[in-house]
Amino acid sequence: MKSQKDLEKPIWDQMRSPSGNPIPGTGSSIRPAPKLMVWLILFVSVTYVVYTLKLVSTSRACDGEREPFSTTHRLSSTSTSVTSNITSEPSVQNQADAHRHIHKHESQELRVQRATEIHHIVFGIAASAKLWNQRKEYIKIWYQPNDMRGVVWLDDSVKSNETDNLPPVKISSDTSQFPYKNNKDIVQPYGSRASNVRWFVMGDDDTVFITENLVRVLRKYDHNQYYYIGSLSESHLQNIYFSYGMAYGGGGFAISYPLAKALVKMQDRCIHRYPGLYGSDDRMQACMAELGVPLTKEFGFHQYDVYGNLFGLLAAHPVTPLVSLHHLDVVEPIFPNMTRVQALQHLMVPKKLDSAALMQQSICYDKRRTWTISVSWGFAVQIFRGIFSPREMEMPSRTFLNWYRRADYTAYAFNTRPVSRNHCQKPFVFYMSKAEFNSTMNQTVSEYARHRIPHPQCRWKMANPAELDTLVIYKKPDPYLWDRSPRRNCCRVLKSKKKGVMEIDVGVCRPGEVSEV
Questions:
Q1: pTM, two decimal places
Q2: In a domain, 109, yes or no
Q3: pLDDT score of 241 more than 60
Q4: Which of 245, 207, 248, 275 is nearest to 403 (CA)?
Q5: Chain Cα centroid distance, residue 510
Q6: Is residue 402 situated within a structural domain?
Q7: Where are the beta strands (DSSP E) in 333-370?
Q8: Nearest-CA neighbor of 160 among 133, 186, 181, 141?
Q9: Residue 217 CB neighbours (<10 A)
Q10: 215: domain CATH number?
Q11: Domain that holds residue 261
């Protein structure tokens, strides 16, 4: 009898054969398949060894060539790639074309990389002939004719003096063909053919720009793209009546050069469609909507649609560069006992020392005397009895009325806090009196004198800030403040040997430093 193994063998042979028939010589120990595999492996191995030896013998790089996968050979696909990385050699066949392409790419990258400067900006200032003699003094404060470019657009002719150091004055063109009465100042500055222009900036004759901070803000954006940059009104109702997507012209706004070119092509058709809109900034936003360009908000542009005293707003400036001030004719002078123009000229003193830090708030505490101290560098310092949290101190106190002259705290587009009615919690205010740079200490030294107004008697058993006459603040200039992530500077109360004097250090927060008691 056949064993079980002998019976299974034909079945197994059939399964191995593609045709289903038994493979001949299944019992033989010699098979051709393993020999073929051995010869194939030997052939591949010999070929690999020969090819490797050939590569090694010819791998010495020629002078000036780069490794094909080195970091200096790769071309970055982003618009911000460093042009020095473009060092790869093109093939001989396409060498000329490749060189031209690389040269074009490098020139484009260099244009992007060069930082925006003040000479890349053209200002367009909308002005009224009736108020020109008064308001031109505001323009003189910030405009530097040797370094800046701009045009003042007036609705009628005025007497001009070349020694006034003002931008050229031009009369707005005839707008009788348009269905509104206001002049056509929204587009005329952008029709300029001045060379090397990146941005057009619009403002009013009562707008004061901090031009160093304007440049810092615009540097963040690619001027080759469509950008419409500005900010809203402080008035919630104004934003509802006009638009929360509109840059208010008095606070100033910026338009990139390519966007201005696109606007010029369609502006006449656009403004014909909006006869019911009030002002040029309103019509500007309508045209931007047709172009599909939204407002990029930068909160350092200040429309200041308020009345009264700007102190509460300026003493708690948001953590952003101060770019502009507006409606200076309808608010009180920002420094007491000065005219409006004198007060703004006074503000330019610390601006020249450290423009990036101008009006920036710092909050700290005098633990020994239980005081809260709020520094608005270059402007004013407040000292409060007791402890107020930073969350409270960074809210502007309502020292002003809204645009409709009402004391309505719901009428603002931001949080505010009431002026304290408790006599003991009213702040003692010290205004900046002088500022200078100490080259020995390599820092600015600014002094703040107490604003001498009557303070009601306080029965709290704690130190009285009225004992102080002067605050001295030490701060190192920090031109790169806004190149870092936004953060308030920190302040520290120093020991002072002088009677009636408090010394404070202001600067970048140290590791682990927090505004707390």
A1: 0.77
A2: no
A3: yes
A4: 248
A5: 24
A6: yes
A7: 361-366
A8: 133
A9: 20
A10: 3.90.550.50
A11: 118-297
